[in-house]
């Protein structure tokens, strides 16, 4: 398993990790199988979405903020309940097929770390598993 450490820069942001995850897949030597990408944090997430147009990420962040505003009154006293809810909505992991030694993503797809309570240092765990062939 590989751990990718990422220093985020703002409270809410998406960080494209596709290149780093493909490097972990290459390092594993697995040609066919799958790759689990997981973030062990309760105020972050992992998603796959368009990586070519940065406006897609801006739209997602904007609408998540509208859906779960940071300034709302929550019972949780730390002041980051919105981040916990956003993490639950997005999810903390993705599984991607591995083909020919790299992630089998669509043309426009990228894998993102979703930061909802930054800036922080986040760890992303990458586990590459060969197929049973």
Features of the shown structure:
single chain; 133 residues; alpha+beta; Jelly Rolls; five-stranded antiparallel β-sheet; three-stranded antiparallel β-sheet; 37% strand
How would you name the CATH homologous superfamily?
YjbQ-like
- Counted up, domains total 1
Rounded mean pLDDT is 96
CATH topology: Jelly Rolls
Low-confidence stretches: none
Order of helices and strands: EEHEEHHEEEE
- The total of helices stands at 3
In percent, how helical is the residue content? Answer: 25-40%
Q: How does the major sheet shape up?
A: 5 strands, antiparallel
CATH class: Mainly Beta
Radius of gyration: 15 Å
| Gross geometry | elongated
Provide the β-strand percentage band.
35-45%
Q: What is the CATH-assigned architecture?
A: Sandwich
What would you call the structural class?
Answer: alpha+beta
Question: Which strand order do you get reading across the main beta sheet?
Answer: 1-8-3-5-6
Number of strands: 8
Q: In whole angstroms, how far apart are the ends? A: 21 Å
Characterise this structure:
The chain is α+β, with helices and mostly antiparallel strands and 133 residues long. The chain has a single domain (2-130), classed as Sandwich (Jelly Rolls), CATH 2.60.120.460. The chain is built from three helices and eight strands. The strands form two sheets. The protein has a five-stranded antiparallel beta sheet with strand order 1-8-3-5-6, with helices on one face. It starts with a strand and ends with a strand. The mean pLDDT is 96.
